[in-house]
Amino acid sequence: MTKSLALPVDPSTRGDGQQQNRGSDFSELSRRMAEAGLLRRRPLYYTVRFGLVALALAACIGAFLTLGDSWGQLFVAVALAVVFGQLGLAAHDLAHRQVFSRRRPSEAGGLLVADLLLGMSYGWWMNKHTRHHANPNHEGKDPDVSPDILVWSRRQARRARGLPRFVGKHQAALFFPLLTLEGLNLSFSSFRALKSPSVKRPALEGTLLVAHFVVYFGGLFTVLSPAKALLFLAVHQGLFGIYLGSVFAPNHKGMPMIEEGTRLDFLRRQVLTSRNVQGGALVDTFMGGLNYQIEHHLFPSMPTPALARAQVITERYCAELGIPYHRTGLIASYREALRHLRSVGEPLRTPAVG
Q1: Minimal CA–CA distance to 91: which of 70, 108, 110?
Q2: pTM value?
Q3: d(CA 155, CA 259)
Q4: What's the Cα-to-Cα distance from 297 to each of 65, 130, 174, 210, 326, rounded to whole Å?
Q5: How far apart are the C-alpha atoms of 65 and 218, rounded to whole Å?
Q6: Which DSSP helix (H) or strand (E) runs through 189?
Q7: Among candidates 287, 129, 271, 293, which has minimal Cα distance to 198?
């Protein structure tokens, strides 16, 4: 069933007898994580992980140059889409300082991976993602649920006009097809954001973004015929967008939306709006640890390999406090997200009366 779109006011904010105990709920969980050693950096893990991604990228480039003007390049496009997805996950971990504790190396790594290798502005994305973490699923505060082409609540659906109104009617069916454009959308938004204050180094990021696309398009149209180059572009960018969307969509879509005036403490705000995805090592690798979304939101700088143990501690702790903790399979998470999209789009499919 689709979850309620509004969260109840937390009794802990009303000044009742439980206020004092609830005020320390997150502090207690944080203490347990520290005692378990889960907040320590894992340099060996990231060295191996990033090294494997770099080798995969080098293998794709080597295969691309070796095959030349061949239809076999479509297999390279598929492989490169997966590699780009993994690069996106690497940029995410760097932005959260999961890899390095200090700002400078984290930023340098983020600029290299996001801007130069992916063609996405690190500064723009980090600003956007930080606001999401502060207020997940909060209408008006979380940029990931701002109405754009898709609508995320019935309130947004009733206000939709133009293209969003048309798309919103069928957004559940159109969701995955629209994801094929997400890679290009990230790049377009990155160039547009260079004029925004959210990008602190517009000249540097602009240079890195231009360098990325000069090499990317230059390589495509130098090695491949125009038809093959365009097809490679469509397959690579389309699958890359689907991969990223498939990783990020299960985390919050279909979970409760926070309305203005709803008051929740940090622990409950993060747990109640997030969904974990179970599935073992394969899902962990596919989602880069973001399947432990609840723990990631509670401890954004926690290294990926620590999240599985943190999940057990967090779920047990939430059970102690009586806080709902949602965990489901990967396919079920997509079903919940799509069911939510269909439900909130209902006002657009219902003829107005009178």
Answers
A1: 110
A2: 0.90
A3: 10
A4: 41, 11, 28, 33, 14
A5: 13
A6: helix 182-193
A7: 129
pLDDT of 351 reads: 66
What would the DSSP string read from start to end of 205-239?
Answer: HHHHHHHHHHHHHHHHHHHS-HHHHHHHHHHHHHH
Residue 328, helix vs strand vs coil: strand
Per-residue b or e along 307-336, where b marks 16 or more CB atoms closer than 10 Å to that residue's CB: bbbbbebbbebbeeeeeebbbbebeebbeb
Q: How far apart are CA 251 and CA 293, in angstroms?
A: 6
* CA–CA distance, 42 with 101 (Å, rounded to integer): 11
DSSP characters over 130-163: HHHHHSTTBTTT-GGGS-SSS--SHHHHHH--HH
Instruction: Give the chain's largest Cα–Cα span.
Output: 73
Using DSSP's 3-state secondary structure scheme, residue 333 falls into: helix
Helix, strand, coil distribution of the chain in percent, nearest 5: 70, 0, 30
pLDDT in tens, 289-332: 999 999 999 999 999 999 999 999 999 999 999 999 999 999 99
Residue entry with tokens 């400078």 = 104
Q: Using 50 as the pLDDT threshold, list the residues of the chain that sit under it.
A: 1-23, 353-354
Tokens of 234: 């469509």
Query: Would residue 48 be called left, alpha or beta, if left means φ above 0 and alpha means ψ between -120 and 50 degrees?
Result: alpha
CA dist 95 and 110 (Å) reads 6
Q: What is the pLDDT of residue 122?
A: 96
